[in-house]
Amino acid sequence: ADQVECGEVHExxxxxSGNDPFSVSPGYYTTGxxxxxxxxxVQQPCEVGFYCDGGVRMPxxxxxxxxxxxxQSRLCSGYCPKGHECPEGTIAxxxxxxxxxxxxxxxxxxxxxxxxxxxxxxxxxVDSRRCxxx
Length: 134
Known about the structure:
single chain; Tyrosine-protein kinase ephrin type A/B receptor-like domain-containing protein; Growth_fac_rcpt_cys_sf
C-alpha cells in the first residue's frame, strides 16, 4: 500500500484513513514515514525517561527524571531530589556517592571541596555542601 503525506508532526494517518489526519494523543509521539517522517501512520506512547509534546518525543532534561511513561511536560516526573543526580533521560534518580553532594534539581553531583578519604569516610549525608565534613 502506498503511504500518503499526513499533516504536521502532531498528526498521524492510520493505515486506511487516506490522508485524513488524526490528532496525536497527549503523551504520545508519531512514527512512520522513513527519514522525512511525512507519512506518519502510527502514534506510540512516550517511554520512561522521555516526554512527548505535540507529537515529538524528547528526553527528560538534565536535572529531571521520567519514572512513568506518557509524560507530557519537560518537567517529566519532577526535579531530581536532593542527594541525587539526574542526567538527561534519567528514569530513576541516582544517589550521589560519598565525597559528593547535590542540593536538588542536579544533573550531576558536586564534588566536595577539599575532598579526602577521611572526610569521605565521615560524610553522613549527600544533600548539601555542609555534608562534606571538611
